[in-house]
Design brief:
Blueprint lengths: L12 H18 L13 H4 L4 H18 L18 E4 H18 L1 H7 L11 E4 L10
Parallel strand pairs: 1-2
Length: 142
Amino acid sequence: MRLWSLHPKYLDSKGLVALWREGLLAKNVLEGKTKGYKNHPQLLRFKESNDAVGSINQYLTAVYEEALERGYHFNKSKISFDFNPGKIHVTKGQLNYEMVHLQNKLQIRDPQKLRELLNVERIEPHPLFFIIEGEIELWEKI
C-alpha cells in the first residue's frame, strides 16, 4: 500500500488509479470493515489524526478531484464528503524520498511524466498535508 504524501498531480495514470484503489482499501481498514492491513505503517498518520476516517475521506477527495481534472470517472459514491477539513504534517525529507521513489517507478512506466517531474523545483504535498522540517518519516519502509 502506498498512500502518497505528494500531490496527486505528480502521478502518472497508473499511479493515480492505484492510489484511488489503495486509498479505498485504507478507508475500509480505518472504518473497521476489513481484517487485513490493520497495522500497515502507511495508516499510522491517519490513525494519529483527530479523525482517521474523515482524514482518509479528505485524502480521497483530492485524489477524486485530480481524476476529474484528467477526465477519469472514479466512483464518487465510494467516499464521504461529510468531513471536517484538517491537516496532517509530513516532513520535507519524506516528500523528497517519495519524489525520488516515484521518479524511479516512472523511468520504466512513463518516461514522459518522469521528464515533467525532473523540472519540479518545489514539491507540493497532497492537499491534506502541510510540510514540516525533518527526515524521512519513521513509518516509511525503506
